[in-house]
Amino acid sequence: MRRLPLQAARVLVPGLYAWLVTVAMPAAHREAGWLPRVFAGLALIALVGGPLISAQNEQLGRRVGVFGFLGASLVTWIGLDAVLEVGRVDPLRAALGSVGWALFAFGWGSVREVGAVPEQDPHVLSGELLVARSVPPRGAAWILGLGMVGAVGLVVLAWRVDRPIHALLGHAVALVAAIAVVTVAAHIGALQGTPRRAAPARARLDRGARWLVLAALLLGFGAMLRALF
Amino acid sequence: MVRALDWLSVLLLLLAIGAFGLGVHALGRRADLDALYWLVIGALVLKGATDLLRPQGGR
């Protein structure tokens, strides 16, 4: 019961923001019918009720707080129909709302309490400490961070595509590209300057060069077409 | 030389992010052919960056 305020805040703060931006505001639109408005209200009740019930009955609270909130929000969105057409949605508000939903999902997760020491848990396995075999190379975090910033930028850019069918394609393409960028950034970061069974520099250059030559040819071809037409 | 290749792969990663960004931006400008063009270039550059890092025996 003592943990309720912190747990509730972790869920309620992002949940209320996500609800306000992505559920309540569209439901308050003058073209919205009674059904989405009723379910938007039910979603709010489920959102607030979930953490409160969770203090007494965790399983039931989780069902109400996650599935109840999500289900009522889903019915609201289905009922809103034309109000939520891609061209009518503000890209920035939608992007920030999706961040709120992500934080809401994390809020229901189980995280370590502030000040708690994992090794003091009565269920902890005793024995020798497991020491990492190596440490990440210097600069690895920066390169991974660079990739993550680039990936987020791609996902945000996809919100600028306002044609309904192309918008979906844009999000799919941006998501695939973002995953590829983060994966390659992690790979590059992890291998920076570490002694490894690397092929000789010449062989590595040859291997990468074929793709880079293709890219350069395509760039040149595009520049030539642009100059001609 | 090995160190230079490591940094080249970082530079290629940045170029690939830029090319992908131009591709997604072109979709928003309703220039579908431009979008395809930049996305393919991004994929090729990213593949080049990955292949520069392959350890010995990697395919």
Topology readout:
The complex is a heterodimer of chains A (229) and B (59).
Chain A: H1 4-27, H2 34-54, H3 58-80, H4 91-107, H5 140-158, H6 164-191, H7 201-228
Helix pairs in contact in A: 1-2, 1-3, 1-4, 2-3, 5-6
Chain B: H1 2-28, H2 32-51
Helix pairs in contact in B: 1-2
Structure at a glance:
Chain A has 229 residues and is mainly α. Helix content of chain A is 70%, strand content 0%. Chain B has helices spanning 2-28, 32-51.
Give the averaged pLDDT of chain A, no decimals: 85
Shape of chain A: flat
Radius of gyration of chain B: 14 Å
**Oligomer status:** heterodimer
The string of secondary-structure elements of chain A, in order, is HHHHHHH
What is the CA-CA span between the terminal residues of chain B?
Answer: 21 Å
Alpha carbon gyration radius of chain A: 25 Å
Task: Describe the overall structure.
The complex is a heterodimer of chains A (229) and B (59). With 229 residues, chain A is an all-alpha fold. Chain A has helices at 4-27, 34-54, 58-80, 91-107, 140-158, 164-191, 201-228. In chain A, helix 2 (34-54) runs antiparallel to helix 3. The longest helix of chain A is centred in the last third of the chain and has 28 residues, at 164-191. The mean pLDDT of chain A is 85. Chain B has helices spanning 2-28, 32-51. Chain B has 2 helices and no strands. Helices cover 80% and strands 0% of the residues of chain B. Chain B has 59 residues and is mainly alpha-helical. Chains A and B meet through helix 5, helix 6 and helix 7 of A and helix 1 and helix 2 of B.
